Amino acid sequence: MPDSHTLLLISSWLVYFILHSLLASIRVKQYVASRWPRAMPGYRLAFNVVAVLLLAVPLGLTLTASGPWIWRWSGLAAAVAFVLAAAAVLGFLWSLKFYDGSEFLGLRQLREHNSSVDDQEQFRLSPLHRWVRHPWYFFALVIIWTRDMNAEMLITAIMMTLYFVIGSRLEERKLLRYHGEIYQRYRRRVPGLVPLPWKYLRDSEVQTLADDPQHGDS
Fold first, then answer.
1. Residue 156 burial (10 A CB sphere; 0-12, 13-18, 19+)
2. Is the pTM higher than 0.85?
3. Which domain holds residue 56?
4. By the 8 A CB rule, do 44 and 109 touch?
5. β-bridge pairing 69-71 and 149-150
6. DSSP assignment of the chain, as one string?
């Protein structure tokens, strides 16, 4: 039987994932917009603040655990793990230049008093999106699975991986609503979480999607 700390860790991740998904859902945002329309310009910013604060609980339970190691990288394996994790961090930092950080954080919505329920970003393909639909999730998975693992860290790695799989599908429902057939075509050509060398968008395909008549209506 799992001990109390393990059960608390699993429960805290489940609560976090449920709340995060609910607060990100269109239905909840529509409810807030109908009841408290003046609050909507600050919704995205508040969502991000709440997400960070709630994350402190499961991460704290993970990082303060002192259970025995299940495995620890050593020698060449440790060097490879370090290089992969460093590359993922650098890839994430490089990818930021292709995102509208102000919109992602919610600052632009607040500044412009934008009360729209829908996300404001247009359909754009960064260089990384030619290879994987969710590059940030991919980088996070690399960082997670290159860590040394005790029981708590392994539970966290498994829970986060499951959430990335489920969460990416929930996120893509919204993307299909926003971008329709153009995103459907993109999704057929590019893998979701893990890049595959034989499955990517060529330059000509990126341009074809960019020139699609639906693109301007997204």
1. buried
2. yes
3. 4-217
4. yes
5. antiparallel
6. ---HHHHHHHHHHHHHHHHHHHHHSHHHHHHHHHH-GGGGGGHHHHHHHHHHHHHHHHHHHHHT--PPEEE---HHHHHHHHHHHHHHHHHHHHHGGGS-HHHHHTHHHHHTT---SS--------TGGGT-S-HHHHHHHHHHHTS-EEHHHHHHHHHHHHHHHHHHHHHHHHHHHHHTHHHHHHHHHS-SSS-BTTB---HHHHHHHHT-GGGGG-
Domain count, the chain: 1
CB 145 within 8 A of CB 128: no
- How would you class 185 by CB atoms within 10 Å of its CB: exposed for 0-12, middle for 13-18, buried for 19 or more? middle
- The amino acid at 102: S
List pLDDT tens digits, range 98-127: 888 888 888 888 888 888 877 655 667 889
Nearest in space to 42 (alpha carbons), one of 129, 101, 109: 109
For tokens 């993109």, the residue is 186
Would you state the structure tokens that stand for residue 142, as one six-digit string?
A: 């690399």
182 near 209, Cβ under 8 Å? yes
Main-chain dihedrals φ then ψ at residue 196, nearest 5 degrees? -120, 125
Q: What is the pLDDT of residues 57-102, one digit of tens each?
A: 999 999 888 778 999 999 999 999 999 999 999 999 999 988 888 8
